[in-house]
Design goal:
With about 475 residues, the protein is of the alpha+beta class. It has 15 helices and 16 strands. Strands 2-6-7-10-1-11-12-13-14 form a nine-stranded mixed beta sheet. Strands 5-4-15 form a three-stranded antiparallel beta sheet, with no helix packed on it. Strand 13 and strand 14 form a beta hairpin. The termini are far apart.
Length: about 475
Amino acid sequence: MDFEVIIGLEIHVEMKTKSKMFSASPVAFGAEPNTLTSPYDLAFPGTLPLPNKQAVINAIQVAHALHMKIDNELHFDRKNYFYSDLPKGYQITQNRRPIGSNGYLDIVIDNKVNRVEIERLHLEEDTAKQLHFPSYSLIDYNRVGVPLIEIVTRPCIHSSDVAAKYVETIREIVSFLEVSDGKMEEGQLRCDVNISLKKKDDKKFGTKVEVKNINSFNYIKIALEYEINRQKNELLKGHQIVQETRRYDEANKATQTMRLKTDSVDYKYFPEANIPIIKLSQDFINHAIESSNELASDKRKRYLQEYKLNDYDTSILLSNLAVARYFDECSKFSKHYKAIANWIIVDISAFLNKNAITIDKFNIKPKVLVSLIDEIETGKISNKIGREIFNYMLEKNVDIKTAKSALNITNQESDDKVIRALVNEILDNNEQSIKDYHAGKDRALGFLIGQAMKKSGGKINPSITSKIMIEELKRRK
Protein backbone atom coordinates (compact mmCIF):
# COMPACT_ATOMS: atom_id res chain seq x y z
CA MET A 1 0.00 0.00 0.00
CA ASP A 2 1.37 3.44 -0.99
CA PHE A 3 1.33 6.26 1.54
CA GLU A 4 1.97 9.95 1.07
CA VAL A 5 4.09 11.61 3.73
CA ILE A 6 2.91 15.02 4.96
CA ILE A 7 5.38 17.09 6.98
CA GLY A 8 5.07 20.55 8.52
CA LEU A 9 7.84 22.31 10.43
CA GLU A 10 7.90 24.91 13.18
CA ILE A 11 11.27 26.54 13.74
CA HIS A 12 12.06 28.81 16.69
CA VAL A 13 15.07 31.09 16.18
CA GLU A 14 16.63 32.94 19.11
CA MET A 15 17.85 36.34 17.96
CA LYS A 16 21.19 37.75 19.07
CA THR A 17 20.01 41.20 20.01
CA LYS A 18 21.79 43.06 22.81
CA SER A 19 18.65 43.10 24.97
CA LYS A 20 15.49 41.04 25.42
CA MET A 21 12.24 41.27 23.51
CA PHE A 22 10.37 43.42 26.03
CA SER A 23 12.99 44.47 28.60
CA ALA A 24 16.48 46.00 28.77
CA SER A 25 18.04 42.85 30.26
CA PRO A 26 21.13 41.70 28.31
CA VAL A 27 21.12 38.60 26.12
CA ALA A 28 24.10 36.23 26.47
CA PHE A 29 24.69 32.47 26.31
CA GLY A 30 26.40 30.67 29.19
CA ALA A 31 26.06 33.35 31.89
CA GLU A 32 25.59 32.35 35.52
CA PRO A 33 21.96 31.28 36.10
CA ASN A 34 19.48 34.05 36.93
CA THR A 35 21.98 36.89 36.45
CA LEU A 36 20.45 38.37 33.29
CA THR A 37 17.01 39.29 34.54
CA SER A 38 15.00 42.39 35.37
CA PRO A 39 11.81 43.02 37.36
CA TYR A 40 9.84 42.74 34.10
CA ASP A 41 11.39 39.34 33.21
CA LEU A 42 10.42 38.02 36.64
CA ALA A 43 6.87 39.45 36.34
CA PHE A 44 7.07 41.89 39.22
CA PRO A 45 3.82 43.88 39.62
CA GLY A 46 3.69 47.22 37.85
CA THR A 47 6.30 46.43 35.17
CA LEU A 48 5.41 47.01 31.51
CA PRO A 49 6.79 45.57 28.24
CA LEU A 50 8.62 47.72 25.69
CA PRO A 51 9.16 46.09 22.23
CA ASN A 52 12.74 45.70 20.99
CA LYS A 53 13.23 47.74 17.80
CA GLN A 54 16.16 45.64 16.56
CA ALA A 55 14.16 42.44 16.98
CA VAL A 56 11.46 43.91 14.73
CA ILE A 57 14.10 44.87 12.13
CA ASN A 58 15.55 41.34 12.28
CA ALA A 59 12.11 39.79 11.76
CA ILE A 60 11.49 42.00 8.71
CA GLN A 61 14.84 40.99 7.22
CA VAL A 62 14.15 37.26 7.62
CA ALA A 63 10.58 37.64 6.33
CA HIS A 64 11.91 39.42 3.24
CA ALA A 65 14.49 36.68 2.65
CA LEU A 66 11.60 34.16 2.74
CA HIS A 67 9.59 36.13 0.14
CA MET A 68 6.89 36.97 2.67
CA LYS A 69 4.29 39.71 2.82
CA ILE A 70 5.36 42.07 5.62
CA ASP A 71 2.65 43.59 7.80
CA ASN A 72 2.82 47.37 8.20
CA GLU A 73 1.29 47.16 11.66
CA LEU A 74 2.78 45.43 14.68
CA HIS A 75 0.18 43.56 16.75
CA PHE A 76 0.96 41.54 19.88
CA ASP A 77 -1.22 39.00 21.68
CA ARG A 78 -1.21 37.12 24.97
CA LYS A 79 -0.93 33.36 24.83
CA ASN A 80 -2.17 32.15 28.20
CA TYR A 81 -0.85 29.03 29.83
CA PHE A 82 0.38 28.45 33.34
CA TYR A 83 3.71 26.71 33.48
CA SER A 84 6.85 27.07 35.55
CA ASP A 85 8.92 28.40 32.64
CA LEU A 86 6.66 31.46 32.23
CA PRO A 87 6.76 33.77 35.27
CA LYS A 88 3.91 35.97 33.99
CA GLY A 89 1.61 33.02 33.35
CA TYR A 90 1.37 34.06 29.71
CA GLN A 91 3.62 34.62 26.72
CA ILE A 92 3.57 37.71 24.52
CA THR A 93 3.42 36.57 20.91
CA GLN A 94 1.70 37.36 17.60
CA ASN A 95 -1.39 35.31 16.89
CA ARG A 96 -3.84 37.32 14.79
CA ARG A 97 -1.40 39.26 12.62
CA PRO A 98 2.11 37.86 12.26
CA ILE A 99 4.74 40.27 10.98
CA GLY A 100 5.37 37.98 7.97
CA SER A 101 2.94 35.79 6.03
CA ASN A 102 2.56 33.71 2.86
CA GLY A 103 6.18 33.12 1.90
CA TYR A 104 8.19 30.29 0.39
CA LEU A 105 11.65 28.80 0.13
CA ASP A 106 12.88 26.74 -2.83
CA ILE A 107 14.94 23.71 -1.81
CA VAL A 108 17.05 22.11 -4.54
CA ILE A 109 17.90 18.41 -4.16
CA ASP A 110 19.35 16.40 -7.07
CA ASN A 111 18.63 19.33 -9.42
CA LYS A 112 14.92 19.21 -8.53
CA VAL A 113 13.27 22.30 -7.02
CA ASN A 114 11.02 21.59 -4.03
CA ARG A 115 9.00 24.64 -2.99
CA VAL A 116 8.28 24.82 0.75
CA GLU A 117 5.32 27.11 1.45
CA ILE A 118 5.68 29.17 4.62
CA GLU A 119 2.47 30.18 6.34
CA ARG A 120 3.76 32.70 8.89
CA LEU A 121 6.66 34.27 10.73
CA HIS A 122 5.89 35.87 14.06
CA LEU A 123 7.70 37.53 16.95
CA GLU A 124 7.51 36.33 20.53
CA GLU A 125 9.51 35.97 23.74
CA ASP A 126 11.34 32.85 24.87
CA THR A 127 10.61 30.94 28.07
CA ALA A 128 12.91 30.03 30.97
CA LYS A 129 15.32 27.11 30.76
CA GLN A 130 14.50 24.15 33.00
CA LEU A 131 17.15 21.81 34.39
CA HIS A 132 15.75 18.51 35.56
CA PHE A 133 17.36 16.28 38.20
CA PRO A 134 16.15 12.95 39.66
CA SER A 135 14.29 14.49 42.60
CA TYR A 136 13.95 18.16 41.71
CA SER A 137 14.06 20.75 38.91
CA LEU A 138 15.77 24.12 38.70
CA ILE A 139 14.84 27.12 36.55
CA ASP A 140 17.22 29.56 34.90
CA TYR A 141 15.36 32.76 34.05
CA ASN A 142 18.18 34.19 31.93
CA ARG A 143 16.43 32.92 28.80
CA VAL A 144 13.05 34.44 29.70
CA GLY A 145 12.22 37.18 27.23
CA VAL A 146 14.97 36.46 24.71
CA PRO A 147 13.55 37.57 21.31
CA LEU A 148 12.30 34.74 19.12
CA ILE A 149 10.98 34.42 15.61
CA GLU A 150 8.84 31.38 14.89
CA ILE A 151 8.68 30.25 11.26
CA VAL A 152 5.80 27.90 10.42
CA THR A 153 5.49 26.01 7.13
CA ARG A 154 2.32 24.69 5.61
CA PRO A 155 1.98 20.87 5.60
CA CYS A 156 3.61 20.65 2.17
CA ILE A 157 6.86 18.72 2.66
CA HIS A 158 6.92 15.10 1.51
CA SER A 159 10.37 13.77 2.39
CA SER A 160 12.89 13.83 5.22
CA ASP A 161 15.60 15.04 2.80
CA VAL A 162 13.64 18.18 1.90
CA ALA A 163 12.74 18.81 5.56
CA ALA A 164 16.37 18.54 6.72
CA LYS A 165 17.66 20.73 3.87
CA TYR A 166 14.93 23.31 4.61
CA VAL A 167 16.05 23.60 8.25
CA GLU A 168 19.69 23.89 7.15
CA THR A 169 18.72 26.65 4.71
CA ILE A 170 16.80 28.56 7.39
CA ARG A 171 19.90 28.38 9.59
CA GLU A 172 22.03 29.63 6.68
CA ILE A 173 19.66 32.58 6.14
CA VAL A 174 19.50 33.71 9.78
CA SER A 175 23.25 33.28 10.31
CA PHE A 176 24.27 35.19 7.14
CA LEU A 177 21.78 37.93 8.00
CA GLU A 178 23.40 37.86 11.49
CA VAL A 179 19.98 37.70 13.07
CA SER A 180 21.11 34.58 14.97
CA ASP A 181 24.10 32.23 15.11
CA GLY A 182 21.59 29.39 14.66
CA LYS A 183 23.49 26.98 16.90
CA MET A 184 21.14 24.09 17.62
CA GLU A 185 23.42 22.78 20.37
CA GLU A 186 22.92 26.05 22.27
CA GLY A 187 19.16 26.13 21.67
CA GLN A 188 19.40 29.09 19.30
CA LEU A 189 17.49 27.18 16.67
CA ARG A 190 14.87 24.64 17.75
CA CYS A 191 12.69 22.56 15.49
CA ASP A 192 9.31 20.87 16.03
CA VAL A 193 8.15 18.45 13.37
CA ASN A 194 4.56 17.47 12.52
CA ILE A 195 4.17 14.23 10.55
CA SER A 196 1.21 12.34 9.18
CA LEU A 197 0.68 9.66 6.55
CA LYS A 198 -2.29 9.18 4.26
CA LYS A 199 -3.19 6.82 1.44
CA LYS A 200 -2.22 8.21 -1.95
CA ASP A 201 -5.83 8.63 -3.08
CA ASP A 202 -7.18 10.08 0.18
CA LYS A 203 -7.95 13.81 0.24
CA LYS A 204 -8.04 14.00 4.02
CA PHE A 205 -4.77 14.12 5.97
CA GLY A 206 -3.91 11.38 8.42
CA THR A 207 -3.57 11.82 12.20
CA LYS A 208 -0.76 14.24 13.01
CA VAL A 209 2.07 13.36 15.39
CA GLU A 210 4.41 16.05 16.71
CA VAL A 211 8.09 15.44 17.48
CA LYS A 212 9.41 18.20 19.77
CA ASN A 213 12.73 20.01 20.12
CA ILE A 214 15.02 18.10 17.76
CA ASN A 215 18.45 19.63 18.34
CA SER A 216 20.62 18.70 15.34
CA PHE A 217 20.27 18.69 11.57
CA ASN A 218 21.28 15.04 11.40
CA TYR A 219 18.69 14.05 14.01
CA ILE A 220 15.90 15.79 12.07
CA LYS A 221 16.37 13.41 9.15
CA ILE A 222 16.80 10.33 11.38
CA ALA A 223 13.78 11.19 13.57
CA LEU A 224 11.60 11.81 10.52
CA GLU A 225 12.58 8.57 8.84
CA TYR A 226 11.98 6.61 12.05
CA GLU A 227 8.58 8.21 12.59
CA ILE A 228 7.53 7.71 8.95
CA ASN A 229 8.40 4.01 9.16
CA ARG A 230 6.71 3.66 12.56
CA GLN A 231 3.46 5.17 11.32
CA LYS A 232 3.59 3.16 8.09
CA ASN A 233 3.99 -0.10 10.00
CA GLU A 234 1.11 0.79 12.34
CA LEU A 235 -1.19 1.58 9.42
CA LEU A 236 -0.24 -1.63 7.58
CA LYS A 237 -1.20 -3.57 10.71
CA GLY A 238 -4.60 -1.90 10.67
CA HIS A 239 -3.88 0.21 13.77
CA GLN A 240 -4.93 3.82 14.15
CA ILE A 241 -2.28 6.48 14.66
CA VAL A 242 -2.62 8.16 18.05
CA GLN A 243 -2.43 11.95 18.14
CA GLU A 244 0.47 12.65 20.47
CA THR A 245 3.65 14.56 21.17
CA ARG A 246 6.84 12.53 20.93
CA ARG A 247 10.52 13.24 21.50
CA TYR A 248 13.61 11.96 19.75
CA ASP A 249 15.77 9.58 21.80
CA GLU A 250 19.34 10.06 20.54
CA ALA A 251 20.70 6.90 22.19
CA ASN A 252 18.13 4.59 20.59
CA LYS A 253 17.67 6.67 17.42
CA ALA A 254 13.92 6.45 17.91
CA THR A 255 10.98 8.66 18.81
CA GLN A 256 9.22 8.06 22.13
CA THR A 257 5.86 9.16 23.53
CA MET A 258 5.93 12.25 25.75
CA ARG A 259 2.21 12.96 26.11
CA LEU A 260 -1.08 12.28 24.34
CA LYS A 261 -3.01 15.05 22.62
CA THR A 262 -6.66 14.22 23.13
CA ASP A 263 -7.79 17.83 22.66
CA SER A 264 -6.19 20.95 21.27
CA VAL A 265 -4.94 23.34 23.94
CA ASP A 266 -7.03 26.50 24.34
CA TYR A 267 -4.54 29.29 24.94
CA LYS A 268 -7.31 31.90 25.15
CA TYR A 269 -5.47 34.38 22.96
CA PHE A 270 -6.41 38.02 23.29
CA PRO A 271 -4.71 41.32 22.30
CA GLU A 272 -1.83 42.39 24.55
CA ALA A 273 -3.33 45.41 26.30
CA ASN A 274 0.03 46.81 27.44
CA ILE A 275 1.41 47.21 23.91
CA PRO A 276 -0.60 49.42 21.54
CA ILE A 277 -0.70 48.75 17.81
CA ILE A 278 2.55 50.05 16.32
CA LYS A 279 2.39 51.35 12.74
CA LEU A 280 5.48 50.56 10.67
CA SER A 281 6.18 53.12 7.97
CA GLN A 282 7.19 51.90 4.53
CA ASP A 283 10.46 53.80 4.96
CA PHE A 284 11.17 51.83 8.16
CA ILE A 285 10.42 48.51 6.41
CA ASN A 286 12.48 49.47 3.33
CA HIS A 287 15.43 50.56 5.45
CA ALA A 288 15.36 47.27 7.38
CA ILE A 289 15.44 45.34 4.09
CA GLU A 290 18.09 47.53 2.44
CA SER A 291 20.38 47.28 5.47
CA SER A 292 20.30 43.47 5.38
CA ASN A 293 23.54 41.56 4.93
CA GLU A 294 24.10 39.66 1.69
CA LEU A 295 22.44 36.25 1.77
CA ALA A 296 24.42 33.07 1.17
CA SER A 297 22.26 32.39 -1.91
CA ASP A 298 23.37 35.71 -3.45
CA LYS A 299 27.01 35.01 -2.57
CA ARG A 300 26.66 31.58 -4.17
CA LYS A 301 25.51 33.09 -7.46
CA ARG A 302 28.39 35.57 -7.41
CA TYR A 303 31.01 32.92 -6.62
CA LEU A 304 29.76 30.60 -9.36
CA GLN A 305 28.88 33.07 -12.11
CA GLU A 306 31.19 36.05 -11.60
CA TYR A 307 34.19 34.42 -9.89
CA LYS A 308 33.90 31.12 -11.84
CA LEU A 309 34.45 28.97 -8.74
CA ASN A 310 33.24 25.37 -8.79
CA ASP A 311 30.40 23.98 -6.65
CA TYR A 312 32.76 22.32 -4.16
CA ASP A 313 34.83 25.44 -3.44
CA THR A 314 31.67 27.54 -3.19
CA SER A 315 30.00 25.20 -0.71
CA ILE A 316 33.12 25.10 1.50
CA LEU A 317 33.47 28.89 1.55
CA LEU A 318 29.78 29.32 2.38
CA SER A 319 29.73 26.69 5.11
CA ASN A 320 30.80 29.37 7.58
CA LEU A 321 29.93 33.07 7.60
CA ALA A 322 33.36 34.14 8.90
CA VAL A 323 35.13 32.17 6.15
CA ALA A 324 32.88 33.71 3.48
CA ARG A 325 33.62 37.15 4.89
CA TYR A 326 37.38 36.52 4.79
CA PHE A 327 37.10 35.40 1.15
CA ASP A 328 34.98 38.44 0.25
CA GLU A 329 37.53 40.76 1.85
CA CYS A 330 40.35 39.08 -0.10
CA SER A 331 38.32 39.48 -3.30
CA LYS A 332 38.35 43.27 -2.88
CA PHE A 333 42.11 43.33 -3.52
CA SER A 334 42.58 40.71 -6.25
CA LYS A 335 40.79 38.90 -9.06
CA HIS A 336 42.72 35.65 -8.54
CA TYR A 337 39.52 34.19 -7.03
CA LYS A 338 40.35 30.52 -7.61
CA ALA A 339 43.79 30.87 -6.02
CA ILE A 340 42.33 32.74 -3.03
CA ALA A 341 39.73 30.00 -2.55
CA ASN A 342 42.41 27.30 -2.72
CA TRP A 343 44.58 29.01 -0.09
CA ILE A 344 41.61 29.41 2.27
CA ILE A 345 40.29 25.88 1.79
CA VAL A 346 43.65 24.09 1.96
CA ASP A 347 46.43 26.05 3.71
CA ILE A 348 44.46 28.32 6.01
CA SER A 349 41.94 25.61 6.99
CA ALA A 350 44.79 23.23 7.84
CA PHE A 351 46.33 25.88 10.13
CA LEU A 352 42.98 26.68 11.78
CA ASN A 353 42.23 23.01 12.43
CA LYS A 354 45.71 22.32 13.78
CA ASN A 355 45.50 25.23 16.21
CA ALA A 356 41.77 24.85 17.01
CA ILE A 357 40.97 28.46 16.17
CA THR A 358 38.44 30.19 13.91
CA ILE A 359 39.33 32.34 10.93
CA ASP A 360 38.50 35.57 12.76
CA LYS A 361 41.50 34.77 15.01
CA PHE A 362 43.78 34.15 11.99
CA ASN A 363 46.74 36.55 12.12
CA ILE A 364 47.27 37.09 8.37
CA LYS A 365 44.89 39.78 7.17
CA PRO A 366 43.14 39.37 3.79
CA LYS A 367 45.08 42.19 2.10
CA VAL A 368 48.40 40.63 3.18
CA LEU A 369 47.40 37.14 2.02
CA VAL A 370 46.31 38.52 -1.35
CA SER A 371 49.63 40.31 -1.87
CA LEU A 372 51.39 36.96 -1.35
CA ILE A 373 48.99 35.18 -3.74
CA ASP A 374 49.49 37.90 -6.37
CA GLU A 375 53.27 37.46 -6.22
CA ILE A 376 52.82 33.73 -6.88
CA GLU A 377 50.21 34.18 -9.62
CA THR A 378 52.27 36.83 -11.46
CA GLY A 379 55.38 34.65 -11.31
CA LYS A 380 57.45 36.79 -8.95
CA ILE A 381 57.87 33.80 -6.63
CA SER A 382 57.15 30.10 -7.01
CA ASN A 383 54.39 28.20 -5.25
CA LYS A 384 56.99 26.42 -3.13
CA ILE A 385 58.67 29.68 -2.08
CA GLY A 386 55.24 31.22 -1.45
CA ARG A 387 54.42 28.53 1.08
CA GLU A 388 57.77 29.00 2.82
CA ILE A 389 56.97 32.70 3.18
CA PHE A 390 53.41 31.90 4.34
CA ASN A 391 54.65 29.54 7.05
CA TYR A 392 57.27 32.05 8.22
CA MET A 393 54.63 34.79 8.38
CA LEU A 394 52.43 32.56 10.51
CA GLU A 395 55.25 31.56 12.83
CA LYS A 396 56.76 35.03 13.32
CA ASN A 397 53.62 37.13 12.73
CA VAL A 398 55.40 39.38 10.21
CA ASP A 399 54.59 40.82 6.77
CA ILE A 400 55.79 39.50 3.40
CA LYS A 401 58.70 41.91 3.06
CA THR A 402 60.10 40.94 6.46
CA ALA A 403 59.61 37.23 5.76
CA LYS A 404 61.36 37.44 2.37
CA SER A 405 64.27 39.35 3.89
CA ALA A 406 64.65 36.88 6.75
CA LEU A 407 64.53 33.92 4.34
CA ASN A 408 66.88 35.67 1.87
CA ILE A 409 64.29 35.37 -0.92
CA THR A 410 64.31 37.60 -3.99
CA ASN A 411 61.67 37.77 -6.70
CA GLN A 412 61.91 35.43 -9.68
CA GLU A 413 63.20 36.84 -12.95
CA SER A 414 60.27 36.95 -15.40
CA ASP A 415 61.68 39.19 -18.13
CA ASP A 416 61.44 37.36 -21.48
CA LYS A 417 64.64 38.87 -22.87
CA VAL A 418 66.73 37.92 -19.84
CA ILE A 419 65.37 34.37 -19.72
CA ARG A 420 65.67 33.88 -23.51
CA ALA A 421 69.33 34.90 -23.42
CA LEU A 422 70.00 32.41 -20.62
CA VAL A 423 68.08 29.64 -22.45
CA ASN A 424 70.11 30.14 -25.62
CA GLU A 425 73.33 30.04 -23.61
CA ILE A 426 72.27 26.66 -22.16
CA LEU A 427 71.29 25.33 -25.60
CA ASP A 428 74.61 26.47 -27.14
CA ASN A 429 76.43 24.30 -24.58
CA ASN A 430 74.17 21.22 -24.86
CA GLU A 431 73.93 20.17 -28.52
CA GLN A 432 73.41 16.49 -27.63
CA SER A 433 70.35 17.34 -25.49
CA ILE A 434 68.87 19.25 -28.46
CA LYS A 435 69.28 16.14 -30.64
CA ASP A 436 67.76 13.95 -27.88
CA TYR A 437 64.73 16.28 -27.60
CA HIS A 438 64.05 16.13 -31.34
CA ALA A 439 64.48 12.35 -31.21
CA GLY A 440 61.53 12.22 -28.83
CA LYS A 441 63.41 11.82 -25.57
CA ASP A 442 61.21 13.74 -23.08
CA ARG A 443 63.85 13.80 -20.38
CA ALA A 444 66.00 16.10 -22.49
CA LEU A 445 63.60 19.03 -21.96
CA GLY A 446 63.63 18.55 -18.19
CA PHE A 447 67.42 18.40 -18.19
CA LEU A 448 67.76 21.63 -20.17
CA ILE A 449 65.28 23.49 -17.95
CA GLY A 450 67.12 22.15 -14.92
CA GLN A 451 70.39 23.51 -16.29
CA ALA A 452 68.82 26.93 -16.82
CA MET A 453 67.42 26.96 -13.27
CA LYS A 454 70.81 25.91 -11.89
CA LYS A 455 72.62 28.59 -13.88
CA SER A 456 70.27 31.28 -12.57
CA GLY A 457 70.44 30.05 -8.99
CA GLY A 458 66.75 29.22 -9.14
CA LYS A 459 65.82 32.86 -9.71
CA ILE A 460 64.09 32.55 -13.09
CA ASN A 461 60.39 31.84 -13.51
CA PRO A 462 60.11 28.10 -14.31
CA SER A 463 56.90 28.29 -16.34
CA ILE A 464 58.21 31.12 -18.53
CA THR A 465 61.53 29.30 -18.84
CA SER A 466 59.78 26.12 -20.00
CA LYS A 467 57.76 28.03 -22.60
CA ILE A 468 60.81 29.84 -24.00
CA MET A 469 62.90 26.66 -23.94
CA ILE A 470 60.37 24.85 -26.14
CA GLU A 471 60.19 27.83 -28.53
CA GLU A 472 63.98 27.94 -28.93
CA LEU A 473 64.26 24.17 -29.34
CA LYS A 474 61.76 24.29 -32.22
CA ARG A 475 63.91 26.89 -33.92
CA ARG A 476 66.98 24.61 -33.71
CA LYS A 477 65.67 21.71 -35.72
